[in-house]
Design brief:
366 residues; alpha+beta; three-stranded antiparallel beta sheet; 9 strands; 51% helix
């Protein structure tokens, strides 16, 4: 049995005209589920390995719905569903080369904004939901494996009916491996994104997107033409649910929980965009650690082992730090979050061990 990396490498080497006839068999590969287990941060693989093998057997016999019905625990159902969904989405993203696209993750969308040099206005947009029938039609052009296509429909129905999943924007989450998110990306990639690839506006205009969040940057000389262009796009694609117009000469705009503003260079020359963390995000992030504007212990974590408490606080800090790694002033703007996170950790351990914060600092290297 080949490793997941080997299979994905083979799939990625196929050109865009290649038609896949036997994708379903890749779902029988145990290495894919081990990879998903690590990526999703799950524990106790040895305990769940038998469960995953039963999942693979149900896929082989095409009795997935019966297998899910046999699982009594909702948490167990969601764990199995998440693993299978991760494997399916990973295969699909490899086939469609989404890793090379600006819409692959929050970071790829933000990094694409480094190309913006001269800008005066921003249009922050919410796009409409994808058309499921059109997405399935697009997939059928390159996938003729009936079992795999039927599984996609079944998983999507599971995600909406049982787990209430839709296109999501989780704070401090760079990438969400949900089928709804993949469908959203592939739909708009083959409509709006593909349309813009064939346009040449040089430095007058710039566009990027992640899921249903899109942003357009326009300089002053192109503004009047662009307003007509927005109207044209709405007529052609019926794409815009909401459009917010921002004059970057006067204020900032928010995109994917990043705050964007014009960067001024020497003698007032524009040098692109300045990325920072919105103050509202900092307030929301420290809310769980505070009471009356002061750091407090988290009572819901007092029953956990010390190493688990430390792991959770450190993970939240790492997730925040990683999400905002592309900002220009993370050390300065995230200082308040890091302070509340650390003091809350110290107080939680102090309350659990019934000692002072000073003693916690002497006993643990934090």
């Amino acid at each position: 049995m080949q490793t997941a990396e080997t299979v994905l490498s083979c799939l990625s080497q196929k050109d865009s005209s290649f038609v896949f006839k036997r994708l379903y068999r890749n779902l029988f590969n145990l290495f894919f589920y081990k990879k998903a287990y690590l990526e999703l941060g799950l524990k106790n693989w040895a305990k769940d390995e038998k469960l995953i093998k039963n999942l693979i057997l149900s896929l082989k016999s095409e009795r997935l719905f019966r297998f899910f019905s046999s699982l009594k625990c909702e948490k167990l159902k969601y764990k199995v569903f998440s693993l299978l969904q991760y494997v399916v989405v990973t295969i699909l993203e490899t086939i469609y080369n989404l890793k090379d696209s600006f819409c692959f993750s929050v970071h790829t969308a933000i990094k694409s904004l480094y190309k913006v040099k001269r800008v005066d206005y921003a249009f922050v947009c919410d796009l409409n939901s994808f058309n499921l029938e059109e997405v399935l039609f697009l997939l059928e052009q390159r996938i003729v494996d009936g079992r795999f296509l039927n599984l996609l429909k079944l998983l999507f129905s599971f995600s909406t009916k049982f787990f209430n999943e839709e296109e999501t924007y989780a704070l401090f989450k760079i990438k969400d491996f949900s089928l709804a998110n993949f469908f959203c990306n592939i739909y708009w990639q083959n409509n709006l994104d593909f349309y813009f690839q064939n346009l040449n506006f040089k430095e007058s205009f710039f566009y990027t997107r992640y899921l249903k969040k899109a942003i357009f940057f326009v300089n002053n000389s192109f503004l009047e033409n662009f307003l007509e262009f927005i109207y044209f796009l709405q007529q052609k694609f019926k794409c815009f649910l909401y459009v917010d117009f921002v004059d970057l000469n006067k204020k900032t705009c928010n995109f994917l929980f990043y705050e964007l503003k014009k960067r001024k260079g020497i003698k007032g020359k524009e040098k692109g965009l300045y990325f920072s963390i919105p103050y509202s995000v900092i307030c929301k992030a420290i809310k769980k650690y505070s009471s009356k504007s002061k750091p407090v212990h988290l009572s819901e974590r007092l029953n956990l082992p010390i190493n688990e408490i430390i792991y959770l606080f450190e993970k939240e800090k790492r997730d925040f730090n990683f999400y905002y790694m592309l900002t220009d002033d993370i050390a300065k703007s995230a200082k308040k979050f890091f302070y509340f996170n650390k003091v809350s950790l110290l107080k939680t351990i102090a309350v659990k061990k019934k000692i002072s914060v000073k003693q916690v600092l002497q006993s643990y290297t934090l």
